[in-house]
Structure formats: C-alpha cells, structure tokens
Design brief:
By secondary structure, the chain is an alpha+beta fold. It contains eight helices and eleven strands. α1 crosses α8.
Length: 276
C-alpha cells in the first residue's frame, strides 16, 4: 500500500525489494489508495500480508478496515495509527523516558504566551508528514498572527541543533543514520550516511518498542543535551542508506512466514507527580 511519489518516479528501494521478494517466491502487487475505487462495505482481504507504506489518511483508513477483518499488516495497523498521531506519540515517548521535546495542545495559541516567552515553539499538524504546515514562533507576539487553530495541532518546544536533521532508519534490530539539512523539499533527497552511536541506537530501538514498529524512521536533533526524537514515521523511504533493500526484503519475508512478530503498543506507564 504505497503513496504517490514526489517526484513521480518509482522508488528504487521498493523496486529492489519487490524483485528480491519475488525471487523468494512471493507474488507482489502494489496500489495507491487515492488512485483506486473501493466500496467501503465490500473491501475484502485478498493478500496474505499487506505492507503499509503510505502515510495518507485514506490509506490508513483502508488499512484499518482490513485490520478489523483480520488481515495481517506490516507494520501492524494499531502501531501505524498510533505513530501517525504526533500528540499521542509525544505523550508515549515522554512517559517511556525517550528523549523528546516538551509538547502542548490547545485551540488558542495565545494561551502559550508564557511558554513562548521562555522558548521558541514549533507548530505542527498532528498527523502531518514531509514537513508540511510547520510554523515556528520565536516570540510571544507572533502567536496572535497564527489565530485560532482550525485543526488539531501539536506545539513542541524548539530544540536547537547544528542546522541538520539526523535521520535514523530502522529495520528490525538494524539501525542506520544519515544527516541532511532540513527544508520543505529535503524529503526528496538522500542524506549523507553517518555512524550510529550507541546512544542513538538505544533511543531508536526503544522508540520502536514503545510504538510497536519494526520498519520505521526517526527525525532526531543532536541538541546540547543530547539527541532528541522530534518525529517518528512508519516505513520511511530509507533514502541514503546503502544496500538497504535486501534487509527490508528479508524482514518482510520473515514477517510473512511468521518468523518475526511485533508486540502491540502497551498502555504507557502512569506517572506519579508533575512532569517537568
């Protein structure tokens, strides 16, 4: 279950994954939810395993229909649904002790005036991706320019870094990383491969355990206080990671044969006392 490509060219990683799976005896087909017509009451399971690559609300909704009919999905639908919601993810990561920014939710940005006086803020659509709809507020006076929020938004404290994102990609227990400057179109370009520190690997794997993911990516910023997770995506593009297709194909094959399992997200532990 794939998404429309930007730019509109086939993903070389996916094409290699398809070929490798077919060489292992699998029949592989793909579809884009926005380019097909389906009746809501007649959607039926027609595959042994669905691999959810698309992050659109329509694809996730169809995955939910299939999940409730008993279909097997990778990543599991509950994990993808959870990971897509930045508000829920923020609470779970902080509760689990994964380094991540403090975050707030409100419909009235002016209520954040006291917070904005002490730290810059980043406004993000709660289920956005590819950096769409992000706004940065550097001082309280800018809050009035935003106006009342018409859709659910997460507001994160700004995490200072060196001007580059650390993109971390995970396949099972294997963790890879690239660096690249953030921009509105940076998702279309590969980053520069870089070493994965023990700290980054631990944070990445703990994030997967918290959310119940096996194929996923993290956006991290290397702040003065250490690396922090600012975003999580299920089944990212793995751009810039050398020879990644065989690892993805092997993971999908093992999952299809039942040799791998993912633990469903568990309720976050309850905290006692205030969180700072």
């Amino acid at each position: 279950m794939v998404v429309r490509r930007v730019p509109p060219v086939p993903s070389p990683v996916l094409r290699q994954v398809y070929a490798l799976l077919e060489s292992k005896g699998f029949t592989v087909t793909d579809s884009t939810a926005e380019e097909t017509l389906a009746r809501c009451d007649t959607v039926a399971i027609d595959a042994d395993l669905y691999v959810l690559k698309s992050h659109t609300e329509l694809a996730l909704s169809i995955a939910g229909v299939l999940h409730h009919q008993g279909a097997r999905l990778l990543n599991p639908y509950p994990s993808c649904s959870l990971a897509q919601n930045k508000i829920v993810v923020s609470g779970r990561l902080r509760a689990a002790g994964v380094p991540s920014p403090r975050s707030w939710v409100t419909g009235d940005p002016l209520l954040l005036a006291e917070v904005a006086a002490s730290t810059p803020l980043i406004f993000k659509p709660y289920c956005g991706h590819r950096g769409a709809g992000i706004r940065v507020v550097h001082r309280p006076a800018q809050l009035a320019e935003i106006g009342r929020l018409q859709s659910a938004t997460i507001v994160q404290e700004y995490v200072p870094g060196d001007g580059e994102d650390l993109k971390v990609y995970v396949v099972g227990e294997h963790v890879f990383a690239v660096r690249k400057p953030f921009s509105a179109t940076s998702f279309t370009r590969p980053g520069r491969p870089c070493p994965v520190t023990c700290e980054v690997r631990d944070i990445a794997l703990r994030t997967g355990q918290v959310l119940g993911l096996g194929l996923y990516g993290l956006d991290m910023i290397e702040s003065p206080d250490g690396p922090m997770v600012v975003d999580v995506n299920y089944f990212p593009g793995y751009k810039g990671v050398a020879d990644i297709a065989p690892r993805i194909a092997s993971y999908v094959a093992e999952y299809a044969h039942g040799h791998r399992q993912l633990v469903a997200p568990q309720p976050a532990p309850q905290r006692v006392g205030p969180v700072v």
